[in-house]
Structure formats: structure tokens, C-alpha cells
Amino acid sequence: MLMKILASLALLLLPIFTLGQSPTFSSDALAPTPPMGWNSWNKFGCNVSADLVRQMADAMVKSGMKDAGYKYIVIDDCWQVSRDQDGNIVADPVRFPQGIKALADYVHSLGLKFGIYSDAGSRTCAGRPGSLGHEYQDAMQYAKWDVDYLKYDWCNTTTEDARAAYRLMRAALDASGKPMVLSICEWGTAKPWLWGHDVGGNLWRTTGDIKDRWQGSEKWPNGTCCSNGVLDIADQQADLASYAGPGHWNDPDMLEVGNGGMTNTEYRAHFSLWSILAAPLIAGNDLRDMAPEIRDILTNREVIAVDQDALGSEGRRVRKDESSEAWVKQLKNGNRAVLLLNRGASEAEIKVAWEDLGYPHHLSATVRDLWQHKDLGQVTGEFSAKVASHGVVMVTVQP
Ligand code: GLA
User: Fold this and answer.
1) Which pTM was predicted?
2) Which residues, 6+ apart, have CB-to-CB distance to 354 below 8 Å?
3) Which residues is 398 bridged to in the sheet?
4) Strand partners, 314
5) CA 205 to chain centroid
6) 32/54 Cα distance (integer angstroms)
7) pLDDT band (50, 70, 90) for residue 14
8) CATH value of 316-398 in 3.40.50.150, 2.60.40.1180, 2.40.110.10, 3.30.428.10
9) Could you tell me the distance, in angstroms and rounded to a whole number, from the CA of residue 289 to the centre of ligand 1?
């Protein structure tokens, strides 16, 4: 009898043990909607420290961003300086005097989550030690520090295969026992949308780095791909929608909203485009001294709700002429979010037809403007609006 009870107990426990060991562990549960947070790179580059990160976490709470859904505080490159004699990664002792665990604890004490950065090559893009050959050791270290999110870059990888490298790091993270979001930062070179989900990535960069400008791509100094403006990045997303879904997202890079290189109209368009694309919303500005207009963009809950919609469907471009575009995203309740974008130099009337939304022409629907926070009434057949130069009109359409 005792043997029988023990045998059934073992059978019951088996799935729990095998789940921990399985390399095919489903990571989707870590990011059911696109991750939201803040990352140090776009504004501060290598100028990171524990003080800066603490202040940013405080500001995320104080500014109302936490209440609007932002959750992760991520230190990008340059927190690490060397490896010790046992190969353990060493954080900069001057800039992070109490170490990374103390910082993670502080971020957690505010009800936020904590992320860190490394690289699949021998060195990071800024020349700090990468994780090549130390994948399991680093993952264990991150778990000890209570890290919730890893951005994993692709500099100095020479002959490595991207798919294998990211699969290896996912296996290492899983083996640590600490659930960690894996942010694949491979710039789209090996088309990570085709394999990013399969290797357990939760988001994957689809392009080179964003720059704080409306338009214009440039090659990197080593002749490889590129830095991009908002419109260049948007163009590169247009055919990728089918690869995204709950748990695994196309990542058109972090936000530049508030960094000073664009007008507020352009920042509104940038934020709206990222939301219609179900993109991760990772702010990249100084949260401590935001102008009210910038804060209002980053915390627009109606626009964020489109990004975070539980269906997890990425929006698609349904109309495009020289400078006018319409993008449409299906929402879980059957409504549609619609973005009218004007790339041109002067105001333009832009329209979208119900057929573009997958609705019959005769349907009557309620339209709500998500930037004016205003119902625009019942509309049949099509919706059109005057859109400012470099601006957007963003609405929901409810049949
Ligand atoms: C690459 C990434 C950036 C940033 C830097 C850090 O360029 O694409 O997002 O992480 O490296 O060096």
C-alpha cells in the first residue's frame, strides 16, 4: 500500500521536476502583453550608476508611469567592468558601490521589476565583458541578484549562430530557476522574428538602433547596419505583424519620447505608432524632469491600452500613399484601433474605410479620439480626419 502511495506521489511530482529542467520551457507567460519600462541607454549611454537608477525608479513611481503600467527598470551597457579570477562578472565598484543585488532590492521595494544587459559575444557593444563562454555562470549570477529581465546584445559575436546563441542563454536563464524575460537584441540581421519565439525570446529587436529623429538612416561606423529615425523603423515593421503575439513581440527599439530631438507632435506620432504595433514601451528619457506634455504622452492610458490589449495582435498598415497612411489593430473586444499618420510637410485629410478594418460598409460605429479623450459620435462606412504635418489622429472604432 505504502509503495502504491509513493508511486502515485512520484507520478504527481514528475511534471514539476521535468518542467524545471526542460529546455523547451514556455517563456510566453513572462510577457503576456508587450513589456513596459525604462532603459538607461537612449539618454545616458555609458553614464550609468546606482544613484541614477534609483532616482529613475523613484521618478517612475512619482510621475504616474508605474500606475500607467510601466514596470521594468533596465540598466543597459556599462554596468560591468571585468571578471574576477573565477570568471564571475564584476559590476563597476565606483558606480555601483553596494552591488547589483542592493539595487535590485531597492527597485523591487517600489513594486517595480529589475533588468540588466549583456551580450552574446566576447565583449558588449561598449567593450565591456560579454557572456560568451560564461552563459550559465552569468545566468546564475543574475538569478542571485534577483534580476527579472535580460537584454542580450549581439556585438563581437564573430562566427556564432544567432539562433543557437539565444537558445543557449534562454536555457541558462531557465536553469537558474529564476523566471527572466529574454530581450533579444540582434538588430534584425538574422531575421529573429522567424526563430525568436522558438528559442524562448520574449521580444526581439527588428532593426538597428533608434535615433532621436523623425526620419533618416545611417550606417554604423563599421559599415554594418544602421541607426534609424522613427519613420524608417515604422517602414521596417510593416510586414512583421504575423510574428508577434502574447509572450513574444517584435521590438522596434526603445522610445525616444522626451529626449529633445523631435517635436511633441512627432513624439505623439512615435508613441502612437509603437502602440499600434504592440511594441514594448520602454521609455528612454530622463524621467526626473519631464515636461508635462512629455509625461502626458508617456502616460496616455487610452493609447497604452491599445498597446497592451490582451489579444496581442500587432497592427498593420492598410493604406499608404505618398505621405498619408492608415494603420489598424484588432482589439480583443472586436473593436479596432486606427492610426492616421501624416508624414508630409502640411496638414492633410486622411481617411480609412470600414473595409480596411474588416467591417462591412453599412456598419455604424462609435469613434473615440484617444489623444483628445473625446467621443466623436456615430460614423458609417469610413472615418476621415485632418491630420497635422508629422502628426497622427488615433481613434478606436466600436461597432
Ligand atoms: C547596441 C544596442 C543598443 C544598446 C547599445 C549598448 O547598439 O542595439 O540598444 O544596448 O548596444 O552598447
Assistant:
1) 0.93
2) 360, 361, 363, 365, 380, 381, 382
3) 366
4) none
5) 8
6) 27
7) very low
8) 2.60.40.1180
9) 24
Q: Report the percent of the chain where pLDDT is more than 90.
A: 90
Residue to mutate (ligand 1; options 47, 77, 123, 253; most atoms within 8 A of CB): 77
CA gap 47, 99 in Å, rounded: 16
Residue 9 pLDDT: 52
Q: Is the dihedral of CA 150, 43, 190, 215 positive or negative?
A: positive
* pLDDT above 80: residue 24: no
Q: Give dist(CA 50, CA 75) in Å, integer.
A: 9
Domain map (residue ranges) of the chain: 23-307, 316-398
Tell me whether residue 4 is exposed, middle or buried, using C-beta atoms within 10 angstroms of its C-beta: 0 to 12, 13 to 18, 19 or more: exposed
Instruction: Give the range among 11-20, 322-331, 371-380 with minimum mean pLDDT.
Output: 11-20
CATH homologous superfamily of 23-307: Aldolase class I (3.20.20.70)
Q: Hunting for cell 549581439 — which residue is that?
A: 154
Any idea which residues carry the catalytic annotation? 153, 209
- Which is higher by pLDDT, 273 or 219? 273
Q: Is 81 exposed, middle or buried (0-12, 13-18, 19+ CB in 10 A)?
A: middle
CA 105 – ligand 1 centroid, Å? 25
Ligand 1 centroid distance, CA of 153 (Å): 7
The SS3 of residue 5 is helix
Helix (H, G, I), strand (E, B) or coil at 324: strand
Query: pLDDT-based confidence at 332, cuts 50/70/90?
Result: very high
**Pocket around ligand 1: residues whose beta carbon is below 6 Å from it?**
41, 76-77, 124-126, 153, 185, 209
Q: Of all helices (H) and strands (E), which one includes residue 392?
A: strand 392-398
Residues forming a β-bridge with 203? 183, 249
Cβ-based neighbours of 53, under 8 Å, separated by 6 or more:
40, 73, 75, 103, 107
Q: Please name the amino acid found at residue 338.
A: V
CB of 204 within 8 A of CB of 190? no
Do 253 and 209 meet the contact criterion of CB atoms below 8 Å apart?
Answer: yes
* Higher pLDDT, residue 6 or 141: 141
For residues 179 and 30, is the Cβ–Cβ distance under 8 A? yes
